[in-house]
Amino acid sequence: MKNRFTVFALLSLFCENLPAAAPDRVSVRPELVITTLGFGSCAREERPQPIWDTINAARCDAFVLLGDNIYGDSPDPLVLRAKYARLAAMPGFARLRQITPLFATWDDHDYGINDGGAGFPGAAASQKEFCDFFQVPAASPRRTTPGVHDCVALGPDPDPKGSGR
To answer: Does 104 map to a domain?
Structure first.
């Protein structure tokens, strides 16, 4: 029997029941049944990243990027965009994006500044660059509310009455 997972991009938690979450922050992907889930973080875009070839060879059903997806370390959205473009141009990562559903959150370096907090003045611009790079839909609350956290219920609804979890 395949397990169903609830993936929190913020905390990458797995649980049997969907915890309380703002309804606009929950999306349902019944077509995506996960048996193999990969995790990764700290992708320094200025260095070679042969690890993507190994990850692609593992043929994960989905992959969770846990943050520091780039080392932007800048309040300038053009710098962040260029660094995301460098990551996107890496053949292994490009292949992963083509063949594997990705779920992503950010950490301090892709947020914009090392150890940056809520007062970081470039947060909104960093959020836009993150959402653009990870192709977050235009109507998603991830684009209009602070932070990039998300909750996704994966796999078919276990309730035959279709409770929606």
So the answer is: yes
Q: How many domains does the chain have?
A: 1
Q: Report pLDDT digits (tens) over 85-117.
A: 999 999 999 999 999 999 999 999 888 888 888
**More confidently predicted of 73 and 29:** 73
Of 134, 120, 137, the residue nearest 75 (C-alpha): 120
Considering only residues 55 and 118, tell me which one the structure prediction assigns the higher pLDDT. 55
Q: What CATH number is associated with residue 137?
A: 3.60.21
Instruction: Give me 82's structure tokens.
Output: 């260029």
The pTM of the full predicted model, rounded to 2 decimals, is 0.80
Asked if residue 80 belongs to a domain, the reply is yes
Return d(Cα 118, Cα 55) in angstroms, integer.
33
Q: Do the domain assignments include residue 18?
A: no
Where helices occur in 37-144 by DSSP H, the ranges are 51-58, 77-88, 91-99, 108-111, 123-133
